[in-house]
Predict the structure.
Amino acid sequence: MKPSVFRITSLVLLLALAGGCAKDAPAPVPGLAPDATRDGHLALGNPSGATTNPTNYTNYLLSKSQFALSYHRDKGKPNWVSWHLSRAWLGSAPRQDNFAADAELPAGWFRATSSSYTGSGFDRGHNCPSADRTGSVADNSATFLMTNMMPQAANNNQRTWVGLENYCRTLVSQGNELYIICGSYGSGGTGTNGYATTIAGGNIAVPSNCWKVVVVLPEGSADASRVTSSIRVIAINTPNNQTLAAAWGSYRTSIDAIEAATGYDLLSAVSSAVQATIEARVDDGPTS
Ligand code: MN
Ligand code: MN
């Protein structure tokens, strides 16, 4: 009696497990590896050595499941935001548009709210884009936290910047996974109300430049070890104004130039020899 009960129980358990697996497995996409994963946002390095010590108010690390960032308390915005992008992050969650203060900031720090940019002439410019985090409502909502925003000129945000954001998802649809790091630096930009160095009563700094670095890898595992001297990297540095060109490709530069402008060490988890090669290169590949 006991053995047969055991066998029936085992059979039921196996069927339940099989059913569970079939339900959770991602639908295979023709031509793409069936195993896209969500990987660590700082797998290629922490560009500024940001830490979670709340006395580190100029370079404070906020590590979320959706992205990681370095926050500057007195600029009221991130220094940089870094995230992994693969098919595993993309789903059908709609754009939430629920801009909100970030409760993870240390107590007593200025917290930008959904209305802090109102009337400033600058867009609430996403660093990690809404459309890169559509796997769930929670993932999409995270991109609307104000710690993910920078005061960005409309013609930058809505034309040039969005163009590279869209191209990144095109690269993912072609079988790649990406590591994306972007940020803003410098003082003063020009929005629809003209030039400004700060908004929100001086609590949020307006940057002069918005930059982005994209590391392109075919889908796979052990990503940092696959960053070789022959992989594609894209770097852009754009002016934060209303007169920039719409084509993001015209702002391509080297990672070395962005490191020089920001003082960061990008891709620090990659060997020095590989960094020296890929960081000196200026991309000339397709832009759409
Ligand atoms: Mn991977
Ligand atoms: Mn570097």
Remarks:
- The domain at 33-278 is CATH 3.40.570.10 (Extracellular Endonuclease; Chain A).
- The CA atoms of residues 30 and 175 lie 10 Å apart.
- The chain has one domain: 33-278.
- The longest strand covers residues 176-185.
